[in-house]
Amino acid sequence: MPPLIEVRDLRKSFGATEVLSGIDLRIDESEVVCIIGPSGCGKSTLLRCLTRLVEPTTGTIILEGKDITAKDVDIRLVRERFVTVFQTFNLFPHLVAIDNITLPLRRVLKMGKEEAEARAMETLERVGLAAKAKEYPGRLSGGQQQRVAIARAIAMRPRAVLFDEPTSALDPELTGEVLRVMRQLAEEGMTMVVVTHEMAFAKEVADRVLFMDAGVVVEEGPAREVLERPKNERTREFLSR
User: Fold this and answer.
1) Measuring CA to CA, which residue among 123, 149, 145, 122 is closest to residue 135?
2) How many CB atoms lie within 10 A of CB 139?
3) Predicted TM-score of the model (pTM)
4) How distant, in Å, are the alpha carbons of 14, 63, 188, 196, 207 from that of 112?
5) pLDDT reported for residue 119
6) Which residue ranges of the chain lie beneath pLDDT 50?
7) Is 81 within 8 Å of 137 (Cβ atoms)?
8) DSSP secondary structure code for residue 86 in this structure
């Protein structure tokens, strides 16, 4: 089977600074891949390049067999099928939870009001927040806001969800709420690429772990193998801290 996501020799520079230095990556259908590494190593830049929120300098990104670095690609269609959940939630503060979810369904997928609201309620139920459908983001905890953001993502029925450090702005209790939802999505077979510092989550849920440092993939393999028996000295040093 061809991979769902394939990256070939991806490079990204900001001015004279090369942040990604030749990344090769393959992610298969229903696979959960966690990307770990020190701050500033290029993890979030890699994730943002996958949907061209950041433009690669060189290299090729293939999603579902289509080269999305080609000039004629409709990037809006890519972002419908490969959605990103960010660490800062990005909810509209003037819209209640259900309206935050229905907005992209109606504007992007052109769904009718009733159909969009039914799907929004279904996804709020999945993340345990059906009772909060009419609450504004300002009246929700950080964990609840992030779960609404996840509901908004999965309501699009995407091919994969990309998580960019989804729990980094949360305290430990609220982090647990969000990770439970992500575990559930993994169990349901959702393809997920997760930039994270949550090593216990990566060990439990990920099929593979990639350790990045200074813009390159230093080590990758099955989650428990990388996290419990790393082969690379730099990986061992990072995990020991």
Assistant:
1) 145
2) 12
3) 0.92
4) 42, 28, 27, 36, 37
5) 96
6) none
7) no
8) -
Tokens of 19: 């942040």
Both tokens assigned to 100: 């935050």
Task: Count the Cβ atoms, other than its own, within 10 Å of residue 210.
Answer: 23
Beta strands in 47-154 (DSSP E): 58-63, 66-67, 82-85
Residue the block writes with tokens 């999505």: 185
Q: Does residue 161 contact residue 1 with C-beta atoms inside 8 Å?
A: no
Q: How far apart are CA 193 and CA 127, in angstroms?
A: 19
Task: Dump pLDDT digits (tens) for 216-225.
Answer: 999 999 999 9
Q: How far apart are CA 33 and CA 160, in angstroms?
A: 11
Contacts 24+ apart (CB under 8 A), 213-216: 213/37, 213/38, 213/41, 213/238, 214/21, 214/41, 214/42, 215/18, 215/19, 215/20, 215/21, 215/23, 215/41, 215/42, 216/21, 216/22, 216/23
CA 143 to chain centre: 16
| Crossing angle (nearest 10°) for helices 142-155 and 97-107 | 20
What are the tens digits of pLDDT across the range 42-96?
999 999 999 999 999 999 999 998 999 988 899 888 888 999 999 888 899 999 9
